[in-house]
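Q: what does this look like with nicotinamide-adenine-dinucleotide bound?
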Amino acid sequence: MKKKLVVIGYGGMGGWHTQHALKSDVVELAGIYDIKQERCELAESRGIHAYASFEEVLADESVELLTLAVPNDMHEPLAVKALAAGKNVISEKPVTLDCASLQRMIDAANASGKIFSVHQNRRWDVDFLAMKKIYDEGTLGKVISIESRIHGSRGIPSDWRGQKEYGGGMLYDWGIHLIDQILQIIKAPITGVYCRFENTTNFEVDDGFKLTIDFADGAMAYIEVGTLNFLPMPRFYMRGMKGTAKIEDWRENTKIVTCKAWHESDVIPVETAAGLTKTMAPRDEITTDTFEMERPASDVHDYYRNIVKAIDGEATQLVTHAEMMKVMRVIEAGFESVAKGQYIKVDIQ
Ligand code: NAD
């Protein structure tokens, strides 16, 4: 039987969750609750039941699952209350703002015995899944670095995302997705983090950032989010000892070039204004294989399917507490790096 779900917060993402739930084979939308009357009225006008208060949602015994789609600073207080009331909870990302806050949420979940997870929906993005497949299959040999970039040109949104008190900023907003993706690819312990913020259109929170993560196996990840990039750089770029993979745009296939012969006797030097270079001369098909990998299949409904199975004790939740904490520790180290203007050595297992 489908689990009854209430979405808390009927804004942009709350709207997405209600639409998603209406098409779901595992959850049934019991309604929404939003602190703003006009959002509740809008839901009612669309035929979606609006609860009168958060307490009314908690008191409804037929409701088993709450999805919190409210601004980032409100995730902890609402999750802790909902868990204490015996509800299973999905928090939107970022799950919360720091590790101490996340630990309080995990403690509340452990005390209640209920499922508590975060909506890491970008684990179903096909560009990420393509990179993970190439990494897992060892197509490029030992991976040296992965670069993950998201570039827009419209600045940071002018809503609460631009304000510190609500947990605004791009490290929380997009960083949390891109860090989670990288940690799903490279499982080695993290040894160091370096981060720089950009303030191009907003001076209260970061409207872009550049983050480096070093791993104990020698690999390095570079994550960049920009909101003032009129020419975006490739979405993903991964280098290994035997080849390179690139995804220009998240709607495109992955281009892969692998090396089949290291030595080249007939390299044609490239002529530049300042002289010739053999080192930087492009390779040809004699020493390389070039091919495309199609976008892997993906169904984001698997997120809720897994949560419902976890509630029924038939599966473990895909986005675990330990993974949530690992990502949050990287975020915290990122903020520390920015505050100190330094590289931060860490030991994150
Ligand atoms: P939004 O501003 O569009 O909507 C937030 C809604 O929450 C508003 O309608 C507001 O009135 C309501 N609200 C605020 N405090 C409340 C409270 N205490 N109780 C009930 N309702 C309350 O914001 P959004 O873009 O929908 O973002 C909401 C959350 O979803 C954020 O945490 C954001 O990071 C996340 N999000 C996730 C994704 C994703 O892909 N996973 C995408 C966008 C946003």
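The radius of gyration is 23 Å. The pocket of nicotinamide-adenine-dinucleotide is lined by residues 8-14, 33-36, 39, 54, 69-72, 74, 92-93, 119, 121, 159-160, 173 (CB under 6 Å).
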